[in-house]
Amino acid sequence: MSTAYRNGTVPKGALKVDRPLSMNSSTKSSGSFKSKTAGHTQASGPRRKSTGSVGNSAASTKDDTSVSGRVRVAVRLRPRNAEEMVSDADFADCVELQPELKRLKLRRNNWDSDTYEFDEVLTEFASQKRVYEVVAKPVVESVLDGYNGTVMAYGQTGTGKTYTLGRLGEDDTADRGIMVRAMEDILAEITPDKDSISVSYFQLYMESIQDLLDPLNDNISIVEDPKTGDVSLPGATTVDIRDQKSFLELLRVGEAHRFAANTKLNTESSRSHAMLMVHVERSVKGRDSAISSENGTSHTAKAFKPPVVRKSKLVVVDLAGSERIDKSGSEAHTLEEAKSINLSLSALGKCINALAENSAHVPVRDSKLTRLLRDSFGGTARTSLVITIGPSPRHRGETASTIMFGQRAMKVENMLKIKEEFDYKSLSRRLEIQLDKQIAEHERQQRGFKDEIERIAQEAQIRVAEAEKGYAEALERERLQYQNDYMDAISKLEEQWAENKQKHENEKAKSSMLSASVEVAELKKLFENETISRKAAEEEIDNLKNQLAQWKRSEAAGNSEILKLRKMLEDEKCQKAKLEEEIAVLQSQLLQLSFEADETRRNLDRGETVKLPGTLDSPIPPFMHQHLADSGDGEKASMAKLFEQVGLQKILSLLESEDADVQIHAVKVVANLAAEEANQERIVKAGGLKSLLTLLRSSNDETIHRVAAGAIANLAMNETNQELIMSQGGISLLSVTAAKAEDPQTLRMVAGAIANLCGNEKLQPKLRGEGGVKALLGMVRCRHPDVLAQVARGIANFAKCESRAYTQGSKTGKSLLIEDGTLPWIVQNANNEASPIRRHIELALCHLAQHEVNAKDMIKGGALWELVRISRDCSRDDIRTLAYRTLTSSPSFQAELKRLRIDYG
């Protein structure tokens, strides 16, 4: 019987199956797991034994391929970054490590802390090699022995998960992550002639599985084996790996297609869960395999004994970081990404809790992430988890949540199993050789058969010729006999015809007399029919007269109905007049609500207590006063009441009013409604976007321009609305409005709308063609910091989308920003005193510099010096790292720095 080791630690080569599985059987996952409670391990279900063995029955009863293995958890602390050194300089770290005791202390305050124990505790000084040997190497060795294995990183955004797993170490081999080191060990152990390695690389983005090696393959389905419960992705691209170089190139391609975004916590925050799946097939030597049947061993099985193949799988999971929206600053599409990430991580946490508590139901189907990891937690894989945390006391809550996730994961136990199969490929090659011999022998026999057939065919042709000659002679004799018989028959028929002709003439004379009497009878019958028809016509005339009288009576009734309809029409006119009066009353109420909304906004800005009406004709309910006083959402409550009592269509109809004041108040109401994401779809469906664009085109009032541009900016936060704005000529109208406006607030609204549109890479050519980029650059004449911040944000969004298009291969030419002349302004404001302007401009410069086609223009425009400054003096660590990596990877920049004798590498 196989020996179960604590924590799944198995000496290499110690666990081996003493006999192969049957040809018709496959190793099934027992689905059992163990939970560590009260200081001991208790099995939650019976261990299932392999059922496909052959050979000695006594030996098979003692064999068991299952090994218990608890999920091993290591914690790794990230050192403080530059921003934390500045902002948290006066505060101590919230985490204290005791690696020798494998303990971690999480401080509640200066005198109280909580202590946690893990399998490994890695300090901020732990090397990548040390992390790999502690976390991943035992799992890799198990995979080489035939077990499935999983290595996963979990933690808050920006704590070093991707650095731990996916670092390529191109500049320094010591920085290589777990993926690269694991593949090096696997390639060193396998035999290329007998063994094989294949790799799939994909990401889970917004609950959609997308292939990182083929971006067009963006909706991969999960397939579950109904018998074994194994999860696979047959639609994903699979690449065979022969050397480390090809594997590194595969990782570069996958990383370029992975979704990332700029947040307050991380400049390049991963927005998807990335999974690297490595399939290993190894031949096992020294195993006596045989193919059994019901009555004994067949002769074919004795002649051909296929070797045993062990199939194992290594899954490396780089989870997207958990984040709080208020700290990461996610908005628009980035906010939806954060929600999807947090939901999937929440589903994973629920599964871990259920497994840790031995729950009867584990909700693995709540998310595609938990379905993909069902073998890693509570399954048959050996799992090692590394949780990454930061030292900052500002993120103590997120750090505590990560630590508790790791503590619960340590209670989950898997049942490790080896999956062995016969190597039918080798057996097939041997059978093919045997088949070639049989085919050669068959061809030799076939040639002998062909010669014999040709001899028989010649003898048959001679016999057929003799038979055809005899048949022709007999046929000629028959023809002559039939010809004589034919002539005799003709003569007999002519005699008979003459006799029949004489008889026919006699009968014709008799029939002429009979036909005359028949004609007289027919004439009498026709006369009777005419008499009956005349009577029927007279009856039809009487019926028509009766119908004419009825029609006259119906006409009189119709005239009376017409009089009634005329009276109803007059009543409808009276009701229409009443409705027009009601519309006038609603317009006055709308103006009153608009005035109250403006007064409420001013009071809220001054911090005063606000009292708003709850309905158009009655005071606000008492329970709403406290809500408005506490949350400051009085204006939203008023807008909701406006929706319910007035209706969106009536509000939009007031945008076409001839009264300028009515238009101003109506557009303010629409702008306030558009600020809520729940109202945006209703506004667009009701034609609100078209009405706002019409106001920009037709109105000359700058107040209307400012409020309408703000409403369009709110609607432009949705990707679907962005395409509608572009298709209806919105960017041209915004550009014209920007050229005419002088008020800084109007320019800020217009710049914000264009900046949101710049974040959609599908619309960039059209946006630039209709003057969007030039409009942004023209608004810098205002010099107001808020306007310049929006302009800088739009340029940064545009540059980031271009950078992604370069990476995906959909763009090859020079940047559109450089062609439109924005580079001088970018260089001039790269060191602006205002932090929002400077941060966006620095990001735009880094994205432009990442692609060699822009390097020459940037050197000529003086951007190289700003990149050097950013790489050295930028306050944000992520931007400084991005600038340094861009400078060191660009041949043009390196050549220019070398020409200027500046040592930078």
UniProtKB/TrEMBL annotation:
Family: Belongs to the TRAFAC class myosin-kinesin ATPase superfamily. Kinesin family. Ungrouped subfamily.
Domain Kinesin motor: 70-412
Database matches in CDD domains: KISc
Chain coiled-coil ranges: 439-596
SMART domains: ARM, KISc
Region (Disordered): 1-67
InterPro entries per the UniProt record, alphabetical: ARM-like, ARM-type_fold, Armadillo, KIF11-like, Kinesin_motor_CS, Kinesin_motor_dom, Kinesin_motor_dom_sf, P-loop_NTPase
Subcellular location: Cytoplasm, Cytoskeleton
Superkingdom, natural source: Eukaryota
Positions annotated to bind ATP: G155, Q156, T157, G158, T159, G160, K161, T162
Stored Pfam families: Arm (PF00514), Kinesin (PF00225)
Listed name of the protein: Kinesin-like protein
PROSITE patterns for the chain: ARM_REPEAT, KINESIN_MOTOR_1, KINESIN_MOTOR_2
Keywords for this protein: ATP-binding, Coiled coil, Cytoplasm, Cytoskeleton, Microtubule, Motor protein, Nucleotide-binding, Repeat
Gene3D superfamilies xref list: Kinesin motor domain, Leucine-rich Repeat Variant
Biased composition (Polar residues): 51-60
Keyword Repeat: yes
ARM repeat residues: 646-688, 687-730
Organism expressing this protein natively: Datura stramonium (Jimsonweed)
Biased composition (Low complexity): 22-36
Keyword presence, Repeat: yes
Main location per the UniProt record: cytoplasm
